[in-house]
Each structure stands twice: as structure tokens, then as C-alpha cells.
Amino acid sequence: MKKLDENRKSIPKDQLKNKSSWTDSVLGRLRTDNWDSYYENLPTKLNNTFYENKEILSSLKKTYQIYCNIIGPFHILPDFLFLGPGACGTTSMLELYLRSNNDILPSKLNEIRYFDKKHTNSINWYKILFPSKLTKNLRKLSGKKTITGEASGSYILNPNAPARIKKIIPDVKFIVMLRNPVNRTLSHYKRRIRNKKEKRSLEDSIKYELKNFEDEFKKYIENENSISVYPETSYLARSRYFEHIEIWFEHFSRDQFLFINSDEYFKNPLQEYNRILEFLELPKHNPTLTGKRGISPPGLYDNISIKSETIDFLKNYFPSWNEKLFDLINTKYDWNT
Hints:
Strand content: 5-15%
Structural class: mainly alpha
CATH superfamily: P-loop containing nucleotide triphosphate hydrolases
Number of strands: 4
CATH topology: Rossmann fold
Order of helices and strands: HHHEHHHEHEHHHEHHHH
Shape: globular
CATH architecture: 3-Layer(aba) Sandwich
Radius of gyration: 20 Å
Distance between the termini: 51 Å
Number of helices: 14
């Protein structure tokens, strides 16, 4: 059996050493020791191992579907969902801070993407990724709460996701992390360069996006079942937060949302973590953090340079969009720097 093909959509080759072992996958044990640790649950592990053998993979998928349909009804749905357009800190907040709380048991699998990329799967496929009702009841007997949720930041980008979520979990709470759009755009670009998913300069990428994004986005929405990936060249579009959030407010009440300024989170993570706990109706908590998952090490992108005129373009591009956002969420952030 061949190993993962480099051309296959997967984690970068130099990060394979930080993915889950078979033992991790079987036991549901999440690694947080490296900033880019990658968790594979057992179905994902099997899929990535046997994807070239269609017969074995098909058999495994059918078996897993049967398992989900039997076990899924005995599991609970999430109490909260993390939303964020990428490079906003959702991974570290969920994996390091919220997982440290004894009352919170998030889904082990990060970026489930049920309500956009995998919405054709059964609800039991989704439910099985969360704690069981038995676990919740046993914890209740011992005086513990069980709050569960997941972080699929890309939900915020899909205009069809709110209606799907409304139908299944109408009372769910949303934690939305938004970063200064200039910094988010730069970080997003640099991450894609490092992960070898982008080869163009940011200037060329922006020119391409301004010319092609609308057509690509239209095709994505019209053919969502076959084109499951939001347009990849979307550095600007992902940072136009107003466009995305106004759609969510058409389906859910404002009090179901907590907005976190990622720039404040990076400065004072404990403060923003406790804001989330208050939103989830949990007591304050001073966590003991173990691991680095989601926290990029200093100097990671030092060898990726951006022209000063491109940064100036971004600083001039986003203010009007920011003002629309501030009016919409009735909150103003200091994103002038």
C-alpha cells in the first residue's frame, strides 16, 4: 500500500511527523505538544491509509455508516460552534483553553465541516463525533456539566450553512473570532506559502482574486455538492466579515453570538477565554495549559516578505468593510494599525 500522495489534499509533508499515531486514533487521544499537531480520528486514519484501495475503502465506509446509524442516536449535539475565516486563533482557543476546562468536552475532531463540506452525511455521522448521552448522565451524577462543541471556522464563509444549522441545532451558541483583516489576510497568505498551497506573490494573488472571485464563488454555491472547497484565492473575501455575518443574523438572534477580537485574544488570552466561559454560563477558570497546538512559533514566516505598497493597499481596502461590520455587531475594534 502506497503512502499518502503528495498531490493529495492533506497536511504538508513536513508536518506528517506531528499527526496522530494509530494508538492516538483508536483511543481518541489528542496531541497538543506541537503547535501543528494534526489529529486523525479512526475513520480518517483508515481513509488516509486505504484511499488507493477502492474496494477496502468502500467496505470500511459502509461498515462505519452502519456503526454511526446504530450508535449515533445515543450521542448529543453541540452546544456551541466556533466560527472564523482562518488565521484568527480558533484552534488554540479551543484546543488549549477550552479543552483544559473540566466542564467542556469538545469534539475530538477539529474542523468537522458537517454543515458545509460534509452536509450530505447523515446526522448520526455528525453526532457520533460528540460525547454520548451516557457520558453526560454519568458526569451529571458526579456533579460535572458537559458542554460540547466544535470549531469549523469555514462555516462562516458558506451562505448555506446557517439554514442547515438552524434546522438541526436552532439554539446553538456561536463564538466568532475575527482578526484585524489586514493581519488576517497576510497571515493567511503566508500560511499557504509555507504549506506549499500558494506559489504566486500576494500582489498577483490579489489581482487574480479581484478578477475571478465572484465567478468562482458562484460556481461553488451552485455546485456545492461537487465543489466542496470555498474559492482558494480568497484572501480579501475571507476578511470582508460583514458580508458573511449579515447572513447569519438572518437566521439567528444576536444574543446567540459572542464576538472575540482576535487581536485582544493574542494579547490577553485568559481574559477572552473567560468571556467565552461566561457566554457558555460556566464559572471563571484559570487553566493550566499543556501544549502548543495552534500557537505558531516566533519567526515561522520571517522568510516570506510582502511589499510595503501591498500592505498599504490592504490598509486602504478594508476600513469601509470594517465600519459596516462594527455597525452590524454594535462593537468597534481598533483595527487602524
